Amino acid sequence: METEKIHKTAVVHPDAKLGQDVTVGAYSVIGPKVTIGDGGRIGNHCVLDGQTTIGKNCQIFTGAIIGSAPQDKKYAETDEVELIIGDNNVIREYATMNMGTIDGGRKTVIGNNNLFMANSHVAHDCIVANHCILANVGTIAGHVTMEDGAILGGLSAVHQFVRLGRLSIIGGCSKVVQDIPPFSMCDGHPAKVYKVNTVGLQRAKVPASSVSSLKQAFKILFHSGLTKTNAIEKVSKEVPPCPELDHLIFFVKTSERGLCS
User: Fold this and answer.
1) Neighbour-count burial of 72, counting CB atoms closer than 10 A to its CB (0-12 exposed, 13-18 middle, 19+ buried)
2) How far apart are CA 93 and CA 108, in angstroms?
3) If DSSP states are collapsed to H, E and C, what string results for 88-104?
4) What is the DSSP letter of 3?
5) Each residue of 239-254: pLDDT tens digit?
6) Which terminus has fewer CB within 10 Å in the chain: N or C?
């Protein structure tokens, strides 16, 4: 730990583990069980606490609170739970992230290359994969899963145990109480499926043939009026297969909270 990179007003516990080239801003507090990977940038007035591991090259901006106790009445200070954050994440001003709970698997897990905008919140036992975005004041409740490339619009809230599918995008101010299908564009209060996220698929370089298959599948799954079982059967028989379609069907089959309609 290079003292010239630690502001003189910062409080860094001697047991904290800081990698090479880590910067800590003014009045920030880093607890004894915190590990920060090489190249970390911790802004001013941040609090990093709990059993928290942060990967390489993460940027944490002013006022963020990372690794605090889960907002769960069953939590006890003696619980051995943690927050794990991967590499190259950007956590903007006043964002908050909680550790996991005993009942929820003990871990909140954040992948790589994610963007958490100002005042966003990641609750206990969430899993956020890679290349996800939580816009300003986007909040995900406990046990939520965000698959790769999912985007949550500003001022949107996600109910406990909901899954946000791969490359899905949710409009601002949405109320999300059921699973968001992969590759979809959703919006509303409560959120509804509108169409395939064509732009997101193009940016992810998904082949045009796969996009075409997804569009056909969406019409059957969400606009035909068929039951889930019959719609899946129809998709399997009539829509040209591709890896993205396989993922969509698996997601639909394994939904426990039900899908946004």
Assistant:
1) buried
2) 20
3) CCEECCCCEEECCCCCC
4) G
5) 999 999 999 999 999 9
6) C
Q: What residues does 169 pair with on adjacent strands?
A: 151, 185
Token representation of residue 66: 């990372």
Per the confidence metrics, is the pTM higher than 0.85? yes
The CA radius of gyration of the chain, in Å to the nearest whole number, is: 20
Distance CA 5, CA 76 (A): 35
Catalytic residue positions? Answer: 124-125, 142
For residue 215, give the DSSP letter: H
Q: Residue 172 CB: number of other CB atoms within 10 A?
A: 14
Tell me the C-alpha distance between 102 and 133, whole Å.
27
SS3 content of the chain, % helix, strand, coil (to 5): 20, 30, 55
How crowded is residue 160: how many other Cβ atoms within 10 Å of its Cβ? Answer: 16
Tell me the sheet residues that pair with 68: 98
Taken as a whole, the chain contains a residue count of 261
| Structural domains present in the chain | 3-196 (2.160.10.10), 202-253 (1.20.1180.10)
The pLDDT score that the predictor gives to residue 1 is 54
Helix/strand/coil for 59: strand
